[in-house]
Amino acid sequence: MALTPAPGLAESAARLGTESAFSVLARAKELERLGRSIVHLEIGEPDFPTPAHIAEAAIDAIRRGETHYTPSAGLKEFREAIAADLADSRAIDVSPDRILVSNGAKPLLFFTILAVCDPGDEIVYPDPGFPIYESAIRWAGGVPVPLPLREELDFTFSLEDLSERLGARTKLVILNSPNNPTGAVIPAGVLRAARDLILQTPAWVLSDEVYRRIAYDTEVVSIASMPGMLERCVLLDGLSKTYAMTGWRCGYAAVPETLVEPLTRFIVNSVSCVPAFVQAAGVAALTGPQETVAAMVEEFHARRDLVLSGLNALPGVWSRVPQGAFYAFPDVSKVPLGAEELADQLLEKAGVALLAGVGFGACGADHLRISYANSRDRLEVALERMEKFLRALDYEH
């Protein structure tokens, strides 16, 4: 009897990308299982515990029996807390009815692209930038239009570059400040000028602000707070980075009224809702004491300075000063290995897990992304291992 061929995959599956951080993490964990000592600088995750009062709020909610479905858009009290926080932190006056809650920020990023992008529409996004931007654009059938973040501009974009990429087919502009992977913060003046350019087009804006509270000696401005932008802008944020709640999977967005219903339908069709006890933890996070956040940011600041000092003392390595998030993005073009091979060998031979910058876009070539969301002791070990490895290389050829 003739056998029919095995079933195939949908063509769209091939368009869906991934994050190199998780593949490098998997390899690093495999090496650890084999007995190797690995310093983890690859994953963007605070190493602090979730603050106790937040965890207790979730436990109390579970004990009260809050373990059932919630409205797909989110619990009213959590959406009210988010709206109040946006008013306090960013001077943005938005109704709780325009707040949506999801299982992490990624779904709302994905759903926004799916809701506004038809095949062939152009979406402008930062390069280097969070790799899921391009992945989601391609999967939706859109045309990715990378906006170069220029090192000589402290990894922000030039207005000329933005203007050249905006046109009648531009459906969405994605901005991310502070930026992953560079740690750059977009200056307020650049954002204002960008707003003026975008308002001349039919484009929506997605402002990814998940690292907003993690900034050093600089003001982080939201484009959504600027005149004319609130009805154009999806403001994306979440609990993961600010409150060391990566595993809780809770993100949220303030969205234009036009997008509330379609984005809610995506939530209904995918994850139904965020667990009630997670949303109770979210209320506690936003309305409770913020001292632990301030202490975490202060520690990240100290780690940043330690890492920058160490990186800039390494042969062939140079790094600009990141203004936010917990990433350094050093230039390694003078090292006699390509950045991808360098990242591989640092893991396999030196026991330091980090990422090649090209995984964040073509403009990330010749760079590494280093997460300093690890203890100072472990960061020092990583720098020592990197120095030993780099000094053994032949810089004459």
Commentary on this structure:
The protein has 397 residues and is an alpha/beta fold. The chain folds into two domains: 11-49 and 291-391, Aspartate Aminotransferase, domain 1 (Alpha-Beta Complex); 68-287, 3-Layer(aba) Sandwich (Aspartate Aminotransferase, domain 2). It is 39% helix and 13% strand. The protein contains twelve helices and twelve strands. It has helices spanning 20-33, 52-63, 76-90, 105-116, 131-139, 159-165, 188-198, 257-270, 276-287, 291-311, 339-350, 376-391, and strands spanning 39-40, 99-102, 122-127, 143-148, 170-176, 204-208, 233-238, 251-254, 327-328, 352-353, 355-356, 368-371. Strand 3 (122-127), helix 5 (131-139) and strand 4 form a beta-alpha-beta unit. The longest helix has 21 residues, at 291-311. The protein starts with 19 loop residues before the first helix and ends in a 6-residue tail after the last helix.
What is the H level of CATH, i.e. the homologous superfamily of the largest domain?
A: Type I PLP-dependent aspartate aminotransferase-like (Major domain)
| Proportion of strand residues | 5-15%
Number of strands: 12
Amino- and carboxy-terminal Cα gap: 62 Å
Shape: globular
In CATH, the topology of the largest domain is named: Aspartate Aminotransferase, domain 2
> Uncertain regions: pLDDT < 50 for 5+ in a row?
none
Alpha-beta content class: alpha/beta
Q: Number of helical segments?
A: 12
Mean of pLDDT? 96
CATH top level of the largest domain is Alpha Beta
| Overall CATH architecture of the largest domain | 3-Layer(aba) Sandwich
Number of domains: 2
Write the element-wise H/E pattern from the N-terminal end onward: HEHHEHEHEHEHEEEHHHEHEEEH
Strand order of the largest sheet: 2-8-7-6-5-3-4
Q: In which range does the helix fraction lie? A: 25-40%
Radius of gyration: 21 Å
Largest sheet geometry: 7 strands, mixed
